[in-house]
Amino acid sequence: MKIIRFLVVAxxxxxxxxVASHSANAIECIRAPLPxxxxxxxxxxxxxxxxxxxxxxxxxxxxxVDDNIYYAFTPKKTAPTVGFIILPGGNCxxxxxxxxxxxxxxxxxxxxxxxxxxxxxxxxYLRADRIISDYGEIKKWAIGGHSIGGTAAGFYALxxxxxxxxxxxxxFMNEAYRLDQTxxxxxxxxxxxxxxxxxxxxxxxxxxxPADTVFVEIAGGNHTQFGWIDPSPYPYPxxxxxxPATITIEDQQxxxxxxxxxxxxxxxxxxxxxxxxxxxxxxxxxxGSVTVETIEVTxxxxxxxxxxVFKPKYVKPKIGxxxxxxxxxxPRAYAPxxxxxxxxxxxxxxxxxxxxxxxLSSNRADKIISDYSGIKTWIIGGHSIGGxxxxxYAKNHTDKIAGVALWAAWPSEGFRLDDTDLKAISIFGTNxxxxxxxxxxxxxxxxxxxxxxxxGGNHTQFGYYWDGVNEDFxxxxxxxxxxxxxxxxxxxxxxxxDFLSQFKExxxxxxxxxxxxxxRLGTLRQFRDTVLAKSSxxxxxxDLYYSNGKRIITFFDHSPSLKDSAxxxxxxxxxxxxxxxxx
Length: 583
Prior knowledge:
Layout: H1 2-21, H2 35-39, E1 47-53, E2 69-75, E3 82-87, H3 98-106, E4 110-113, H4 128-134, E5 140-146, H5 148-159, E6 163-169, E7 185-191, H6 199-204, E8 214-218, H7 249-264, H8 278-282, E9 290-296, E10 306-312, E11 319-324, H9 335-342, E12 347-351, H10 365-371, E13 377-383, H11 385-396, E14 401-407, E15 423-429, H12 435-440, E16 451-454, H13 485-501, H14 509-514, H15 520-530, H16 536-547, H17 549-557, H18 560-582
Parallel strand pairs: 3-4, 3-5, 5-6, 6-7, 7-8, 11-12, 11-13, 13-14, 14-15, 15-16
Antiparallel strand pairs: 1-2, 2-4, 9-10, 10-12
Helix pairs in contact: 3-7, 15-18
């Protein structure tokens, strides 16, 4: 009898332990998460992670003790206004999506993953109601999911008057769950090698999505790698019925997160313009060989009625470079490259746009051109959307513009330049958020347009702008750079100067004698700016040199022996110049 009583008590104790251990838990699914997924269930400097326990999913029925949690990822650096709910794929442990959720939250979006009954999202998509109720401070909501989770997300969105967007990962809608008659914004992300939601099925069912749906196909991606999913007991590194991927899971996940965060960004409140970094403000001061002016334009709208001029001090420039800034970027953010380009003998103008958007001010180059009648050749360029609308201006003013310099930009179909005689250059970073679009823009540029690819460069580092806090700031839809801003800027400036040089008539005898690429020219320019320019006599000498430069070069052209002698004398004098500056 004592033995029986002991067994009963022991069994009861074991049962209590089991119940207690599952007081905050989710149903275990057939497909377990890989270790990196579990590692992402943690807080760090950018994201606060929490496992949230619920007493009831519907507000009436108590939540099952083994199915009463969800996973929340909250940005630390900003108060999020957009929330994103993730529904897992069929039979997949919800924690498999933790790395993506963590990365999305790090971009400023509240993100959560909902475990679902029997590990099938169609059984538990209404649990999104609880999440939305728990986070009343979130202003806009999007819901998404992987595989059947994506389908369930669409079905939930159809029934909700709160959801603004749907994100479908490796899935598609059908006749029963069609979204094409809604005003929902939709993103469809798929893998080109998906064996479960094949590209053919995705294309066939695209008719059930809104006309403005964004489709992103990840080349080499498959179905399995939309999560960190252990395919066991299947003997291959991918789920049954799927195909092997030809890219790593890290690469596929990176592209999934980038596409998703870029999509979610549209639901954020209208952004204010990115301010210039301290280095940019320093470059706005006149000094050395460049003068900087702010020119007011009375006929332009107040608040954007000015432009910035960077003018070489000792040369009367004949070539002008008009620059249209990127969207929602303070134009002063481009002062450092503008100053450097001007120091090489070009008039550079950065245009202030209405609302800091070139789309609202694309013809402002007209005023600059009319203000500087002494400029004989004009080049126009810009960053991002500024470059696109520089193309628009150039296309409609081929009588005024000789060339276009695109910085991380491309012309649209309506602004195509391939039917013009304009010269063009496209400069972009390999880590740009839209490298494929930039490369595809080649068909709209003149034949022979050079493409300068900056290895490790991104979109953001084409200017000196930030969020006012983080020096490593990366704007939405971009990727972190693998090189420093200074390195990227040097390559941008060098490529732009090389492009501009084809329009320039050389008026510097030293450049003529040594060659434009000779590094010793830097020593001579430094001597000009730091020694000669410090006295009135030196400034007169500089003026005399440049005003007679063309005549001297012509003289050398007609006397090769004198040219050779002048070159030797110049080369011998450079060490003496260096010693003079050392004192």
